[in-house]
Design goal:
alpha/beta, Rossmann fold, seven-stranded mixed β-sheet, six-stranded antiparallel β-sheet, 13 helices, globular
């Protein structure tokens, strides 16, 4: 399966769209050594995978074989008390034709030279992330956004002065590249230091919600809850006809999710991979056009991998970006829409959408 800059995975429920998105998250977790993140790594123990990707103009291929979990047997058999085996059984990493890592239980070659066998609980990418040859791979897998777009905290908090962080960010792009910044904190830094960038977010938000007069990050103080130097911060909007500011926690779910997209993605660095499962989730019909246009506008710089069932989203995104997902048993297959003769003809989006939902590949997308 080859993925382009913009990918919309379409198919009937159960075809495997979510499985593809989750598999990318799991491979990322293995690469970065994030063993405890939602059990993503443990969920694919025993699997083998190969992934090719490009970063900073160089091509890489990473292959890994993971050790299976300890089987669940009876207590008398000792299975419940057995120690989990190391995660990595074998892995190979190539940059173009050059071998960077060749690792088995018996040896560990780095740049074709043997080195002491390292901890098999983590990938070579995580262990050697400070090595000049491996650092770009760690950076590539670190540029992946998915949880940030799903976790929508009602507010954030600021400990100490905002000026304490000023030296870390010289531009809005520096803030956009820091994926550790939570939603409200990132918005506050943009508002205070790069108001023109924050104004772009405000303008895009008002396009989707015309009754919004102003967007701002507010500080809240709770004397009984906060210690000295600490304050709570939250995105808030001023809406025409409403006297009070509306805090993020009181906004509609569509407003919250679109704000999350705008804050996290408007200044994300080129090459960032964005995973969004069920794009239409929590988004009302009134903001779907703005969300779709915004994501398409970021496609030249970011790689977007989206899933959707919504007719409007599928119809508005050019068919050249559609990836039709089908499943037979446990095997998931992905087809480019343009490779199907009925979809390759020059027709309107609406006509192609009608043809899509009548394709045998779509209609019979799940087979036993």
């Amino acid at each position: 399966m080859a993925l382009e800059a913009f990918n919309l995975l379409v198919g009937v429920s159960g075809a495997g769209k979510t499985r593809i998105v989750r598999a990318i998250e799991q491979v990322r977790a293995v690469a970065l050594g994030e063993k405890e993140v939602d059990g993503a790594v443990d969920a694919i123990r025993g699997a083998s995978f190969a992934i090719g990707f490009e970063h900073d103009g160089l091509t890489y291929r990473w292959e890994a074989e993971l050790e299976p979990r300890v089987g669940r047997g009876s207590e008398e058999q000792g299975a419940l008390h057995a120690v989990e085996p190391p995660l990595i059984r074998a892995e190979c990493i190539h940059q173009g034709e050059r071998s960077l890592v060749d690792r088995t239980p018996e040896r560990f070659l780095l740049n074709k030279h043997p080195i002491p066998k390292l901890d098999r609980a983590k990938s070579a990418i995580a262990i050697l992330k400070e090595d000049p040859a491996m650092e770009p791979l760690y950076a590539a897998f670190s540029r992946c956004i998915f949880r940030a777009l799903e976790a929508l905290p009602p507010e954030g908090f600021r400990l100490g002065s905002i000026e304490d962080q000023r030296r870390n960010y010289q531009s809005a792009a520096d803030i956009g590249a820091d994926f550790s910044l939570p939603l409200h904190g990132k918005a506050e830094l943009l508002q205070e230091w790069f108001p023109e960038a924050f104004a772009e977010i405000e303008e895009a938000f008002q396009e989707a919600f015309p009754t919004i007069e102003e967007l701002k990050v507010h500080r809240r103080h709770y004397p009984k809850l906060t210690r000295e130097g600490m304050s709570f911060i939250t995105l808030a909007v001023k809406e025409s006809g409403v006297d009070e500011w509306i805090a993020f926690a009181d906004m509609s779910s569509g407003m919250q999710r679109y704000l999350s997209f705008l804050v996290h993605l408007s200044f994300a660095p080129p090459g960032t991979v964005v995973l969004v499962d069920e794009l239409e989730s929590s988004l009302g019909v009134n903001c779907l056009p703005a969300v779709t246009r915004f994501l398409l506008s970021r496609a030249p710089d970011l790689q977007l991998i989206l899933t959707s069932h919504h007719p409007y989203i599928i119809e508005q995104i050019p068919p050249s970006h559609w990836k039709i997902v089908t499943r037979k048993g446990s095997r998931v297959r992905v087809l480019d829409a343009d490779t199907i003769p009925a979809m390759a003809e020059e027709r309107s989006h609406l006509d192609r959408f009608t043809r899509l939902i009548n394709l045998p590949e779509y209609e019979h997308g799940v087979q036993g």
